[in-house]
Amino acid sequence: MAVDGFSNGGPAQPPTPFYSSLQKWILQQQEYEARHSQPAPLTNAQRRLLSELELTLTPAPTEPEVGDVNWIGILLEYRAANRMYLGAVEFSEEAAAPAPGPPSPPVRWRCQVRIEERAAAPFPSPPPEPPSFARKKDAKQFAARCAVEWLRANGHMPADGVRFPKRVMAAAVPPPPPQQQQQAKKRRVSPGTGSFNGSSPGLNNDSGASASSKRSPRSSLSTTTTTTTTTTTEDGPSSSPSPSSPFDADERPATHEVNELCRNLGLQPPRYVVTADPQNQGFWNGHAEFDPHGPLPAQLPAAAGRVEGAYGKKLARQQIAEGVLPHLRRVWDARQAEIRAFMSGPRLSK
Question: Which segments of 131-253 does DSSP mark as H helices, in order?
Fold first, then answer.
């Protein structure tokens, strides 16, 4: 068998002088260490070149397969479409600790994601530690893939989408008690309709019909007049939600309820500021902006209505409105309480 040549009997290639001199130098270093029982001396240039050579000879760590699927997008879309669990999708990234001693390898990344469906442990979970990746994005995609596969395996997510059809969800989830159904129905009624009793959804008006009769004409007009016109906002009429809307046919969009509450409070509706997520195409972040000269900014928390990672601009607007609604209802309740206290106070004798 020919050495350093062709296996078919072709001409042998002469050995490269560089390899010969390098091999001779290595033998000298090994003989020195065997004779003196200590590392052979190295110049700074030799140490640097040997470190670089060792890096090229060290095989790169194997990485789990991620594929071309946008696992991050699927996970964020699932969270936007399923609001049963209120927690956000939380990614945590860190640089993997390098091996001790020289040479210093390139930085590798680990990532874990935590969701409310399994809050006790993130994805991926040890043992002994999550795999590392050369690219931070691949580490994040792998974490999202682990979460999506767990959600599908445990019946939270269908294999061909992010949300089960209504008939499947109805069979899996028992109907709520009648009392909760009544409360849900009240939440879909805004202060601008004739069935509103002067208090916010979910709170009982203990004064009943007597309190209604004691209201001033102005407050009665603003709270009990039945309107027959359809108010159209930027989201379109409330009577015909689009097929892609996350709301049921009998549920009014939150943006409409925000507009009606603001109108009955004598305030300007908010402006919905939404911006595209620079890292995830199709996802949006946003917040509500009220009139800075009005009374609402001082009464609302700074984080009220802030949204991150909503799938689609329309869904982002709806989620912003959902975050603002509880605070507007409290303002409305306080306004109605002041009116009731004034109307039920001592009357001045003529």
Answer: 136-153, 166-172, 178-187, 208-214, 217-224
Contacting residues for 350 by C-beta, under 8 A, at least 6 apart: none
Q: Which residue has the tokens 């996970």?
A: 75
What is the phi-psi region of residue 198: left when phi exceeds 0, alpha when psi lies from -120 to 50, beta otherwise?
Answer: left
Distance separating alpha carbons of residues 201 and 304, to the nearest angstrom: 19
CATH number of 71-96+105-170: 3.30.160
286's enclosing H/E stretch is strand 283-289
Token pair recorded at residue 187: 């939440």
pLDDT at 149: 93
Q: What amino acid is encoded at 200 in this protein?
A: S
What 3-state class would DSSP assign to 321? helix
Residues in the chain: 350
Q: Which amino acid is at 144?
A: A
Residue 109 phi/psi, 5-degree rounding, is -125, 145
* Residue with token string 């039945």: 226
Contact 66, 138 (CB under 8 A): yes
- Quickly tell me which residue has 């956000």 as its tokens: 88
Beta bridge partners of 289: 271
> pLDDT band for position 179 (50/70/90)?
low
Q: How far is CA 182 from CA 173, 201, 228, 305, in A?
A: 18, 10, 24, 26
Sequence-distant (≥ 6) Cβ neighbours of residue 263 within 8 angstroms: 192, 269
Domain boundaries defined on the chain: 71-96+105-170, 195-343
Q: What is the C-alpha to C-alpha distance for residues 142 and 133, in angstroms, rounded to an integer? A: 9
Q: Please give the average per-residue pLDDT across 140-158, as a whole number.
A: 92
For residues 139 and 109, the answer to whether their CB atoms sit within 8 Å is: yes
